[in-house]
C-alpha cells in the first residue's frame, strides 16, 4: 500500500483545511522526499538587541554542539532569513567578550515565523 498523508501549517483554521494543505498520495519511494520537503520552515531573526555589534546565530546539532550560522546585524533591514527543518534548535549569542558570548535568545523551529530579539527603538527616538 502507498502512504497517504496531509500536511497543514500550524494554526490553519478548520474552515481553510480543504484549500490550504499539502497532500501526498504518490509512491512509497517518493514519500521520504515529500516529508523532507514539507518538514522545512522559513525562520527570520531581527536584532534589536544593540547596534554596536552583531549577534551570532548558532544551530545546535543533534550532538549538542553549536555550529555558527551567521552574524545577525542590527535593525529590520538586516533581518536574516533561512529555511530550516522543524525541530531544529538555534541560539543567539552576544559576542561582546570575543569569546563564547552570553546567550540572549534560544529558539526551536516550529513554524514559519520571525523572531525579534531586543526592543525596537521608538519612533520618537529615531526622530531625535
N- and C-termini, Cα separation: 67 Å
The portion of residues assigned to helices is 10-25%
The mean pLDDT is 83
Order of helices and strands: EEHEEEEEEEH
Individual helix count:
2
* Overall 3D form: flat
Could you list the spans in which at least 5 consecutive residues all have pLDDT below 50?
none
Structural class by secondary-structure content: mainly beta
Rg (C-alpha, Å): 19 Å
The counted number of beta strands is 9
* β-strand amount: 35-45%
Q: What oligomerization state is this entry in?
A: single chain
Largest β-sheet summary: 4 strands, antiparallel
What is the topology, as strand order, of the major beta sheet?
5-4-7-8
Structure description:
The protein is mainly beta and 128 residues long. Helix content is 12%, strand content 41%. The chain contains two helices and nine strands. It has helices at 28-38, 123-127, and strands spanning 5-7, 22-24, 40-48, 55-60, 66-72, 80-85, 89-94, 102-108, 113-118. Strands 5-4-7-8 form a four-stranded antiparallel sheet, with no helix packed on it. Strands 6-3-9 form a three-stranded mixed sheet. Strands 1-2 form a two-stranded antiparallel ribbon. A hairpin with a 7-residue loop joins strand 7 and strand 8. The termini are far apart. The model has no long low-confidence stretch (mean pLDDT 83).
Amino acid at each position: 500500500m502507498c502512504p497517504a498523508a496531509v500536511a497543514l501549517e500550524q494554526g490553519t483554521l478548520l474552515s481553510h483545511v480543504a484549500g490550504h494543505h499539502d497532500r501526498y498520495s504518490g509512491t512509497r519511494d517518493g514519500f521520504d522526499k515529500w516529508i523532507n520537503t514539507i518538514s522545512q520552515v522559513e525562520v527570520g531573526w531581527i536584532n534589536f538587541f544593540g547596534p554596536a555589534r552583531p549577534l551570532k546565530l548558532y544551530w545546535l546539532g543533534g550532538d549538542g554542539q553549536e555550529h555558527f550560522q551567521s552574524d545577525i546585524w542590527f535593525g529590520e533591514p538586516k533581518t536574516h532569513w533561512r529555511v530550516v527543518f522543524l525541530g531544529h534548535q538555534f541560539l543567539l549569542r552576544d559576542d561582546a567578550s570575543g569569546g563564547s558570548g552570553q546567550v540572549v535568545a534560544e529558539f526551536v523551529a516550529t513554524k514559519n515565523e520571525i523572531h525579534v530579539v531586543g526592543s525596537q527603538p521608538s519612533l520618537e527616538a529615531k526622530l531625535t
